[in-house]
Amino acid sequence: ALGALGGTAAQEALRERAARGGEDRLVRLSALHALAMLDAQVPARELVPLLDDPILRPAALDLLGRSDGAATPVLLKWLGSESRASRLAAVRSLLLRIARSDDADAANLVAAIREQAPALPAVDDAIGVLAGSDLAAQLVAVQFLGIVRERRAVVPILRAARDVALREVGLSTLQVLGPLAEAEIDAAWLELDAPARGDACRLFGRMRG
Of the candidates 151, 81, 178, 82, which has an alpha carbon nearest to the alpha carbon of residue 94? Predict the structure, then answer.
């Protein structure tokens, strides 16, 4: 009910309920989901303690994408979590933070991701997602891999781009990667099937004007 009401008072009540250690975990989880529906900006200091609870963690990671600046290093740390689901949740929230930031803050966040992520398992997670069938997850993966500029992702992105829903974002991402993408595609050319080669030719045409 509080989630449906919205407003500052309702958000404060939901935050208090989510943080209450003695409260039933499903009630706390419902409060977190309601805060997300309200697009509430919950301070990172309130969300970080919830990350220790595997039931509350996904919702807390989601809200960190809407939180204050202190959330960024927390999310970067969770890219190296032992839990694949948590790593992918951190990826989604980092992308949300980039989308909600001004140009300077977004550039700093992209630089931080680019510096830290290549050595972390979240990159392999994102590459693996491209072979799946979850379009929303694939779109997130393409955006993340484009930021990381991981050469191992070039051919998987190209192959995923055969899906018409992914083609434009996939080819645009590879276009931004420029010579890196071209070199990886050239090296893998003999392994590519006809649709992938067709998309590669379209990509090369864009690159060369």
Answer: 81
Compute the distance between CA of residue 2 and CA of residue 118 in angstroms, rounded to an integer: 41
pTM beyond 0.85: yes
Contact, 195 vs 167, CB < 8 A? no
Long-range contact list for 165-169, CB < 8 A, 24+ apart?
165/135, 166/135, 166/138, 166/139, 166/142, 167/199, 169/139, 169/142, 169/143
pLDDT along the chain (209 residues), means of 10: 63 93 93 94 97 96 96 96 94 96 95 91 94 92 95 95 93 96 96 95 90
Angle at which helices 135-148 and 103-116 pack, to 10 degrees?
90
